[in-house]
Structures are given as structure tokens and as C-alpha cells.
Write a sequence for this structure.
């Protein structure tokens, strides 16, 4: 078992090292140090997008990785799987850069993993060539790698293409390799976990679920696409816009959802204003309170369980079966969109511009 395996546990070599060590999952689940480090990997992924400080014991560090994947599988929430895979990839990326900066040191040399080795790991060695300033990637290899990248710059139409190869910078290559690591970590998740192991990990899984429920799932979202809202929020928004009277908990649910996806108080008022009798003053007061401007707390929208208990969970669809929070529904719906989504706020600005031009 080498230190390098523990630093980059997604590598095939590391997987073989775990296999050769002949540890069974039952004994890993019972090993307190491995279980704690595995749990830390997952919880830190939720908290700050890292997997935390590595254990000084190579054995614990390496074995905590397969157990962390088991924990993620048992929780089985799309948002957790994605955040965990991203955190493992980000940590590997940081370690690669750190080892590169310390390459003169003997300890760093033994842990170092070069870009060439990573390309070989992902079967890309023959598809990627350096061209002095940057790299050239065979278009057949570029397209699947870039498919999950966010940003117009990754679209093939925005890239220089010649002789079936796409030009990319060194930074781009780093980003593509990070995405390849992320995919490798998420590969095969959720795993099928035997009941005995699930029972042994029950309390650890419950803690992760609790952390997930408490988490402010709004950090990454600043996109308003009403078509992608969860069915409960679509129904509540529809009621507000029709001028129907909503009980306090329902109004709190829709307003906290809208603040959580990045809408300002004025934008929420604009969205509600389809119905002229909606009460601007009370909406402004409630929205400022929920977003924490006139109160000590920034409120998060209720979980699905709370929505169900108040009778606000309506029109459930297939995606609802896979999530436990309306924010997770929305985040997943945005991620799964095939086409470029248009933000409601941009549409409003365009409509205002057209109206001004017509006047
Ligand atoms: S399951 Fe959750 S997201 Fe779906 S409608 Fe009910 S409360 Fe909304």
C-alpha cells in the first residue's frame, strides 16, 4: 500500500491495492478510524467542497475512500453524489498542483502524478499532444470530456479546430482532467450495498442525511427558470399570481424558495405582480425578513417532509422520488437540462427594452 495510492485513490493502481489487501467491507465498516475518515470525506464535501485533511496513516486514508463511496451510495441523493465526486476531484487537483510545486523534494517525487500519467489513466495518451504553448486534443476525445463542462467556451463552435484536433490551453487540460477524475469517482454510484453493511453504517448515514437536510443548498444557484421549478413551487407561484389567499406556511415556502435561488426582493415583487392585488408592502416586509435583512436569520425553504406535512407537496413527479428537498429537485432539474436555459430575469429585461423601443 503506497502513499501515492492514498493520495489518489481513484487510480486503477489504488483500486488494485485495495483489492489485493483483501479487506472486506464488513471489516472496514467496523473499523472506527476508517469509518470516521470516510464520514469526514463525505461531510467535508458538503461543507466546503474538499475531502478534509488526509489521515497520517496510509491504510486509513486509502481504505476510507471505498467506504466513503459506500456511504454516498447508502444516502443515495443526487446532490450528495455530485458534490462528493466534485470534492474528490478538487482535492486530487490541489494535490497534483502541490506536488508539482514541491517536485524537488524526495517526498513529493514519490507522490507526484504527472499529467502524462493521468492522461494514460483515462486512455487519453494517444489523443492529447502538447504543441508548445498548449495542447491539441482529438475531437472524438474532446467532445465527451467537454460535454459536462459549463460555459460557452467549451462548445466546439467556439474552439479552433484543425485536422480533427481541438486546441486547448494547459489550464483547459487541467479542467478536463479534473472532470475525468470526477466522473471516475462517480462511476458506478450508487453501489449495491449488502444489508449487513448498511446496518453497521446506519448511524453514520443518518448523520450525513441530517447534515444534508440542514445544508443551505442554495450556494451554487443563481438561476431563475420557472419551468424547472419543482411541482410544489410551481403550484404555489401559480396561486400567488392568481391572487389566491395562501396560508402563512405556503407563502413562506414559495418566498424562501425564490430568495434561495438568488432572487432579490424587487425581483420577487415583479414576479408576484402579475396579480395587482398581491400586496406589495407585505411581500416586501416578508421577503426582507426571510432573506435575513430585517431578522437575525436567513431562512431556507422547507424540506419535502415539511411540505408534505403542511399539504404543500402537490403534483409529485418522477424526480420527486429521488430527492428530499425542493432545492435538490431544482438543482437537479437545472443540471439535467439539455438546452441552454434562459433566466427569467434576462427575459424580463429584454421585454422591458422592447416595450421602451415600441413607445
Ligand atoms: S416531493 Fe418535494 S419537490 Fe416534489 S412536489 Fe413534493 S415537496 Fe415539492
Amino acid at each position: 500500500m503506497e502513499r501515492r495510492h492514498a493520495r489518489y485513490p481513484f487510480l486503477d493502481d489504488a483500486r488494485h491495492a485495495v483489492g489485493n489487501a483483501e479487506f472486506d467491507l464488513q471489516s472496514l465498516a467496523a473499523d472506527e478510524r476508517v469509518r470516521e475518515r470516510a464520514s469526514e470525506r463525505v461531510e467535508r464535501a458538503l461543507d466546503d467542497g474538499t475531502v478534509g485533511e488526509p489521515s497520517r496513516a496510509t491504510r486509513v486514508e486509502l481504505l476510507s475512500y471505498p467506504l466513503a463511496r459506500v456511504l454516498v451510495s447508502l444516502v443515495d441523493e443526487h446532490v450528495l453524489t455530485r458534490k462528493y465526486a466534485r470534492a474528490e476531484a478538487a482535492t486530487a487537483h490541489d494535490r497534483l498542483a502541490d506536488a508539482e510545486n514541491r517536485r524537488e523534494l524526495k517526498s513529493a517525487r514519490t507522490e507526484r502524478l504527472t499529467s502524462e500519467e493521468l492522461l494514460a489513466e483515462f486512455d487519453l495518451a494517444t489523443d492529447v499532444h502538447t504543441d508548445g504553448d498548449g495542447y491539441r486534443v482529438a475531437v472524438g476525445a474532446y467532445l465527451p470530456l467537454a460535454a459536462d463542462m459549463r460555459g460557452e467556451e467549451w462548445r466546439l463552435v467556439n474552439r479552433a479546430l484543425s485536422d480533427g484536433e481541438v486546441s486547448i490551453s494547459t489550464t483547459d487540460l487541467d479542467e478536463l482532467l479534473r472532470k475525468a477524475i470526477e466522473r471516475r469517482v462517480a462511476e458506478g454510484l450508487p453501489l449495491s450495498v449488502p444489508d449487513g453493511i448498511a446496518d453497521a453504517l446506519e448511524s453514520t448515514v443518518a448523520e450525513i442525511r441530517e447534515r444534508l437536510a440542514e445544508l443551505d443548498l442554495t450556494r451554487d444557484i443563481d438561476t431563475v427558470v420557472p419551468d424547472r421549478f419543482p411541482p410544489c413551487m410551481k403550484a404555489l407561484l401559480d396561486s400567488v399570481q392568481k391572487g389566491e389567499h395562501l396560508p402563512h406556511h405556503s407563502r413562506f415556502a414559495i418566498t424562501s424558495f425564490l430568495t434561495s435561488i438568488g432572487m432579490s426582493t424587487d425581483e420577487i415583487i415583479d414576479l408576484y405582480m402579475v396579480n395587482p392585488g398581491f400586496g406589495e408592502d407585505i411581500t416586501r416586509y416578508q421577503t426582507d425578513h426571510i432573506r435575513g435583512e430585517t431578522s437575525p436569520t436567513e431562512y431556507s425553504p422547507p424540506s419535502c417532509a415539511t411540505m408534505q406535512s403542511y399539504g404543500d407537496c402537490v403534483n409529485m413527479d418522477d424526480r420527486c422520488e429521488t430527492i428530499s428537498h425542493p432545492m435538490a429537485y431544482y438543482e437537479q432539474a437545472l443540471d439535467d437540462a439539455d438546452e441552454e436555459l434562459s433566466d427569467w430575469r434576462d427575459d424580463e429585461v429584454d421585454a422591458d427594452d422592447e416595450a421602451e423601443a415600441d413607445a
The chain has a mean pLDDT of 84.
